[in-house]
Amino acid sequence: MRIRAIMTPVSKLTILSPTDSAEKALELIEAKGFLSLPVAEERRFIGFLSKQFIYETYFKETQLDFNDFLKRPVAHFIHNRVACVNSNLLVEEAADIFFNNKVRFLPVVNELGEFIGILTQKSLFGVITKVYGLKDPKLSILTDDFKGTLAKITEIISKNGGNITNIALFDTEVMGIQEISVRITGQDIHVIAKKLEERGFKIREIVEGIVD
């Protein structure tokens, strides 16, 4: 999946101009309940502005008149510039960027470099949750032969009324043992677990589904 499918488009964003006053920026940030807002000009992403940085700057400079201080333009407070990403970026690539960088959001641009939206951590984690079937019941199965085991597991689950929503493989790093995590719907997870155990599979853990 490409991030363009889950990004928040510019049309739904509150965007600051570099010529806006810090006072206006604070009013918008507080009114919207955000931690920060993107700053752009003529479809070009410039950076972002946070309420915290405005106040930090004020106290560092020991301004006597806060009202005069707030008349400064937003351009004076833009910081921690975030590198833009292309809308064709894969979701998993975006996850890696979030993991390795302390950023609240990623600015998204098109092929022309025009600012077209942002990708938030919330949107990213939401789609990852769906992909991994986080709310579905899960079985964890231990094996030392993933290739030979997977086909048998899926066959048993299917024959006993189970629908697989996600399969993930984890290396336990202990004597070549691997853990197969299987998310299943359609049949009681305990029934499936019993059928697998009857065929000699070692069930490490059974996790019930999450009900909203």
UniProtKB/TrEMBL annotation:
Q: Which UniProt keywords apply?
A: CBS domain
PROSITE patterns, per the entry: ACT (PS51671), CBS (PS51371)
Q: Check the record and name the CDD domains matching this protein.
A: CBS_pair_SF
Tagged with keyword Cell membrane:
no
Q: Does the keyword Acetylation apply?
A: no
> Which residues does the UniProt record annotate as the domain CBS?
7-64, 78-137
Q: Where is the ACT domain?
A: 138-212
SUPFAM superfamilies (alphabetical):
ACT-like (SSF55021), CBS-domain pair (SSF54631)
- Please give the SMART domains that the UniProt record associates with this protein: CBS
Top-rank taxon of the source lineage equals: Bacteria
Tell me the InterPro entries matching this sequence: ACT-like_dom_sf (IPR045865), ACT_dom (IPR002912), CBS_dom (IPR000644), CBS_dom_sf (IPR046342), Diverse_CBS-Domain (IPR051257)
Identify this protein by name: CBS domain-containing protein
Species annotation: Fusibacter ferrireducens
Show the taxonomic lineage: Bacteria, Bacillati, Bacillota, Clostridia, Eubacteriales
